[in-house]
Amino acid sequence: MTEWKAGIAKITLPTPFPVGDVNVYLIKGERLTLVDAGVKTAECWNSFTRQLSELDLSPKDIEQVVLTHHHPDHVGMLDFFSDSLDVYGHPLNERWIHPTEEFFHLQEEFFKATFREFGLPKEYFSFLSKLRDPLKYSCNRSLTGHLVEGMKPIGLCEWYIVETPGHAQSQIALFREKDGILIAGDLILAHISPNPLLEPPAPNETERPKSLLQHNHSMKKLLSYPIECVYTGHGEEVTQLAELIEKRLIRQHERAMTVYGWLKEEPLTVFEICQRLFPAVYQRELMLTISESVAQLDYLSSIGEIISSTSQPVFYQARD
């Protein structure tokens, strides 16, 4: 039964993705606000409207939406709402939720160059034609306004924005200091570590974001806030935040040191590391596993443990 707790109602919705159900949240503020918006499927929308009815609400009662990030499982149902509904989020949502042919071309060229750099064999380049596929569950609409670090969203005077890039470049969290509640999107999850996904450079940038380094920084950043409970994008709430962050950071360092051990033996490409880290799934989940593999190399580079070649593809090896 969907119910209010401290002015927040958690609504769990089905998705077609391996991650499973996604959580969205209603907040009673000066404006009734929905945080995140599920996927664009009839199953998701029907579940959403049914759970709203348990609160004696309907979709037309929602006055605005705030997006924690742009991934399809967090934005897709926007297409089922009225075009007049206000939608707010980080500026980097825009190119994903209202994509243009220019952006699709930029994305494809970025991954084509990245696949060469990472040493992917030619047969994997066919994946480039599937880059748009997940967006069939996304939406096509623009933001009404932008939310960045320290801002208070319109209609939510008790809440303010914390920028938390890593899992997505557009990711933000909403923090309410009076009771220490954080609505965190996919920054921190109780049951799994979020994937630091590869993305093309931000507008006016030339370097790809180092997603894992950002993600680690965003997690550490939370430790400076008096957070009592984290409402997550998937799964259950997190109440022992500091302990979970420590666990995540230790586990990630251990994975990176496994890679470091291989690189002490011989130089390897990103793709070769991906095959070793994820032998059973890398072909089926190419983007997730490649993202995770280069993330470990970014981390090892940041702590001075490895060096890379200037060749194409790039080979990584342990520093002497």
How does this model look, in words?
The structure is a single chain. This protein has 320 residues and is an alpha/beta fold. The protein folds into two domains: 208 residues, Ribonuclease Z/Hydroxyacylglutathione hydrolase-like (Metallo-beta-lactamase, Chain A); 67 residues, Winged helix-like DNA-binding domain superfamily/Winged helix DNA-binding domain (Arc Repressor Mutant, subunit A). 32% of the residues lie in helices and 16% in strands. It is built from eight helices and 13 strands. Strands 1-2-3-4-5-6-7 form a seven-stranded mixed β-sheet, with helices on one face. Helix 6 crosses helix 8. The chain is globular and about 65 Å long. The termini are far apart. The mean pLDDT is 96.
Question: What are the salient characteristics of this protein?
Answer:
320 residues, alpha/beta, Metallo-beta-lactamase, Chain A, Arc Repressor Mutant, subunit A, four-stranded mixed sheet
What is shown here, in short?
The protein is of the alpha/beta class.
CATH-defined superfamily of the largest domain:
Ribonuclease Z/Hydroxyacylglutathione hydrolase-like
- Please identify the top-level CATH class of the largest domain: Alpha Beta
SSE pattern, N- to C-terminal: EEEEHEHEHHEEEEHEHHHEE
Query: Spans of 5+ residues with little confidence (pLDDT < 50)?
Result: none
Shape: globular
Total count of domains = 2
**How does the major sheet shape up?**
7 strands, mixed
The span between the termini is 59 Å
Subunit organisation of the chains: single chain
Fold-level CATH name of the largest domain: Metallo-beta-lactamase, Chain A
Output the radius of gyration: 20 Å
Strand order of the largest sheet: 1-2-3-4-5-6-7
CATH architecture type of the largest domain: 4-Layer Sandwich
